[in-house]
Design goal:
Length: about 260
Amino acid sequence: AEIFGAGFDCDFFSASVWRNSVQSDEPVIQPAVWADLTYFDPFWIGFSVWQNYDLTSRRHDALKGGLTETDYGVHLGVTAWESEDEAMSLDVEIGHEWFVNQQVKSAYREDYKNTAELYAKVTFNNEIVNVYGQVSWMYDDIGEYDSGFYYEVGFNKEFELCDELTLGLDWNTSMVDGDYAAFMTGVDEAGFLGTTLKAYLSWAVTDWMSLVGTVAYTGVLNGSARQSLGDEGSGWQGDQYRRDLLWGGVSLKFAF
């Protein structure tokens, strides 16, 4: 059967954290729109647009807040396996992302061009704990930084407290090759990059709107990168790139 779904999310976070790396340790707004179409079950196709708005001028003198990045995504997915009682399933997704760095490119670094990546993600859904893994290849060089690989594995568990409230726990850790590590931390050293432990509480206000509160801890695991970033993030990319951070915020989600 043909199934179409779409939504709008708006996150208000105390920091911008991406792939276990702190991009800015001051408040941001991150809106997103998405759409998924299941045209031939169990296959689906999806599209998304995500943006980041800095609410302060924390990121270098040239970035005075406002829109810093827009990401465009497209993906294809399939439920590769499902148990007869539907208690377990295996989802596979491949996708492409375009990263458009508005302010960074125009105001801070002329050589910081837009980039893109291909990724593949696998999720094993079950009643005990959901397990997911992802590999990403940022194939378009960024300035003097070569393209690189990013690997992530994580676990997610949700508890239904009542009909309207759901408590979720999520933990993931990541590894990178030397090129990706150099781009993110300034240290050309393959290995573990970082980890994020997150707890969230979701309140289903209506059938189509929910409010989510999140608190999380992100830390850099690579020893050389931690030394580069310093205690207060006073490293190669500026003092907002902290190596450890407790952060959180509120998200408003609409799904139709």
